[in-house]
Request: fold
Amino acid sequence: LLTESQAAGPGGRLELRTGAPGADELTELRTAKADLERRNAELEQRVAELEKGDARRAIEVTQAVPEQPEPPAEVAVAGPAFDDGRWSEGLAEVDWTTMGEAMRDMLPLFDELLDRWEKDGTPPLEIAGRLQQLNGKLIAQLQSLSGSGIPGSDLNGIFTHPLVVSNQVERLLALSDLPLSEQQRARLAALTRSFTNEDEVKRAEAGRDELALAKVLAETGVKDRYYDEMAALLTPEQRARLYNDRTKGRATLDLFSSSLVWLQYARPLPVADFDQLAAKLSTETTRSLGLSGEQQAKVQAIIGEWSRTLPKGMLDWKPDMFDRQGRMQTSRIREAARYQLDLMHRLLRELDLSPEARAELGRSMRVWVPLPTR
Reply:
């Protein structure tokens, strides 16, 4: 007799326990056993199918849910590579990457501008427009520095401060895949500190001069030497990225020279000889200072005598089309400025100027650069 039976659960087996059966009972028990074994096999198969289905559904769910990509790393806005505690706030407000990109993109356009200008005789408007657009980006960034306290003659004076330029150079070269090495970075940091300090000393010394032009000459003198030493610590490939022989030192065409300061004040003055130079400067001086009569005649005499002391080489060269458009070499602008400063000091000493005229002369930073016409 079947004395105990249990329903088989998933994965279990039905167990049959018997007493001592007779022949007929034995047949029935064998039949029951076979039936139970068949049912047990069916249950095992069903369990296996269920387990397989669970696994398949797990795979399907895994495949249905797309793998979530890692969020991109947040791109940090590059701060200044070189800093000074006195002006940290202003330096931090500048997007140095935007400034570096704009300067990087402007440099090859200058060369293209000259090529087309020389070929066609006029500056190509589309390139000039593109340069103007990029220059607008520089001006926008420069506004962050205008109230920072960084010293300089007007906005371009701030733009060419050694601390600002070193940050420009670092970003531009990094964006050009020509980054500064650690040794170059350390040397440039030391150079920046040295010329920043010298700039302050020279400004203080020039501040005792009544004439603003003296301050510009002192400022640009420091910057010219900074630019030379900065360029010297670069590799030839890095220097070639900043400079080329056609544009180096030319006002409006060189982003890494004091020409950027001078282009604010320098103007070409076409003259045939020194007499014409004296006549034109006399007219401009008496007009700007509001002089007339006896003082006007005295100005003409002073400037005439001054013009005869100028070196002949000042008018012994041939200007090109770029000079005539005001894109003059920095060296010629500085030479004209030094001689003009001497003249202005003499005018202060020898003329009995009104306070208003004296103040006007003191404020003037205009530099007239003689351009030979023959």
Q: What stands out?
A: The two ends are 138 Å apart (CA to CA). Residues 1-23, 54-77 have pLDDT under 50 and may be disordered. The longest helix spans residues 23-64. The first strand starts at residue 266 and ends at 271.
